Amino acid sequence: MSATAKSDSFRVEPVPVRLEGCSKTFGNGARALEPLDLTIRGGETMVFLGPSGCGKTTTLRLIAGLESPDPGGRVFFGDEDVTRLPIERRNVGMVFQSYALFPNMNVAQNVAYGLRVRSVERRQRDRRVDEMLAMMQMADLAGRRIDQLSGGQRQRVALARALVVRPRVLLLDEPLTALDAKLRDGLRLEIDRLLRGLGITAVYVTHDQGEAMALGDRITVMARGRVAQIGTPQDIYFRPADAFVAEFIGTMNRLPARVDDGILQIGSLQLPWQGPAGTTTVLIRPEDVRLQDDDGVLTGMVSVAVFLGDRTRVVVDVADGSSIIVDAPGRTSVARGDTVRLGFDPARLLSLPDRS
Amino acid sequence: MAGGSRGPAFWGQLAFTLLVCLMLVSPIVLSLLAGVTQNYFVGIRSGVTLRWVEEVLRTYSGTILLSVQIAFACLACTLLLGVPAAYVLSRHQGRATRLVEELLVMPVAIPGLATALALIITYGGFGDFRRSWLFILVGHVLFTLPFMVRAVLAVMNSVDLATLEEGAASLGAGFVRRFFGVVLPNCMPGILAGSLMVVTLSIGEFNLTWLLHTPLGKTLPVGLADAYASLRIEIGSAYTLIFFVIIIPCLVLMQAVARRGAGSK
Ligand SMILES: Nc1ncnc2c1ncn2[C@@H]1O[C@H](COP(=O)(O)OP(=O)(O)OP(=O)(O)O)[C@@H](O)[C@H]1O
Ligand SMILES: [Mg+2]
Known about the structure:
The complex is a heterodimer.
Chain A: H1 2-5, E1 17-25, E2 31-40, E3 45-49, H2 56-64, E4 74-77, E5 80-81, E6 92-95, H3 107-117, H4 122-135, H5 151-163, E7 169-173, H6 181-198, E8 201-206, H7 209-215, E9 218-223, E10 226-231, H8 233-238, H9 243-248, E11 253-260, E12 263-266, E13 269-272, E14 278-284, E15 289-292, E16 298-307, E17 311-318, E18 323-329, E19 339-344, E20 350-351
Parallel strand pairs in A: 3-8, 3-9, 6-7, 7-8
Antiparallel strand pairs in A: 1-2, 1-4, 4-5, 9-10, 11-12, 11-14, 12-13, 14-20, 15-19, 16-17, 16-19, 17-18
Chain B: H1 8-35, E1 37-39, E2 43-48, H2 51-91, H3 95-103, H4 106-109, H5 112-123, H6 127-131, H7 133-158, H8 161-170, H9 175-186, H10 188-204, H11 207-212, H12 220-230, H13 233-263
Antiparallel strand pairs in B: 1-2
């Protein structure tokens, strides 16, 4: 649709972003970010994902130039060291959760602001603003005041304002968090299409894993000021690097297991296993567990069964007192109190190095 | 009050409120009437005239002009000092700035007389300065500056200036451009409210000015006091009339600005 068709004139040369040994300590002595090395490839959408307070915004602001790293840290755009450049000289586009649109200007004036700052000559400025508004399907809103726009429209104006100056990098800090769920999905699709159409290097901060999975070429999962894992959405979902990532992304079951003489024992299942003897934990996703009538690895009793349309989420209490969540097909008919057997493909089991 | 059943308590309250209003308003009305009466002791029967107003305008035009001049000079000073001060206070939230915010109330809490005496003790020795209208101006700026700062600060704290500025900076705008293109326009309601407040306070200021003025540099309220003390009551009243004509529009505008500010939230 039009977002990709007309985006050519706003296409930019993709610029990679590199952080080298960037840590951040705030004035009050709090370490918000441990030394971080990170490369964002030219043209990719990198999502920073993590719980509140883990340092996503801080990292984004280091890239933007709104914060400077502790001594020794360096920020590169391509081959250029921009560590000392203030934000106004970095040529980045920023989109904030709170929009940050100028209330004293209308939609067109907001979009034109960056071009005016760059002294783009009047006729060309008007043309680019018109094109940008058309691309964002907001041509009819050009003369509106900001307080006459809905949240979704405001965020689209903010995107237009950031993109019209052809920034080297687009930085978005939870741009959808202030919107209600329905608008969020629509605008997320729009942003996705836009970022891919423009081929711009983008960094997108969110704490919503659905958003992260849908938008990211790669995801950086952060925890307590550190990077826990960097990888494609598939990597992160199917091959989590540690227990934190496994539990933070999606839903994960912990299966009680024992290792003896190189054999892993889960219920009635035995597998050859490397690792120290004793009790251990293996993980499995709810969708990888099957409810079956006979055989099965574990036996348990259904304690909750919730029909969700496309699937039925079943919670099964097993012998040792733990519960296992199973995503069964929607047509499964089980009820609370039923005895069921659980089976799974051993290849789907995950084990994590213990990090304690 | 629901429906038509209004008890005696309501009427009692209404009567009391009206009585208080009457007590407050009637001296003002009587005074204004006196200003256009031929002879106050005979009463309004003696006829209505603009004679006294003309006489005041003739003899006191210098005083009135000086008042307006000081008010606008005071406004200029408080704008130049107060808006940047409010900006710094709102952008650097910390213990030091909170202390300054507390201190801003001080000149209001200290009686004008004390401030004036302090000024005279400190600068009274500089003869030329002491005798010029600038001396009064300094007093007025001291007195009104906190009002300006607080009016602007209130608006600045309510519009999330920090993020607006970050947005502008990300688009390439340097400090000066951000300040004039984004900060100032978005603080206009506060600047306007502060300005009207400053002008009104400066024109009406008496305590400080009474001590600071010299016979050659009187402001309107000081002249007014002189007129009542030494001249016919009709002249003093006509003077009050002129004072009202200047000050009431300021007050009305101030209310309008405050209402519009509240409405746009
Ligand atoms: N200006 C600051 N001064 C002091 N500490 C700060 C400052 N900004 C952030 N921090 C601290 O740094 C840590 C990381 O903050 P950051 O804003 O990067 O988190 P975040 O991952 O973006 O969280 P959220 O999802 O809540 O936005 C937090 O502990 C926070 O309290
Ligand atoms: Mg954040």
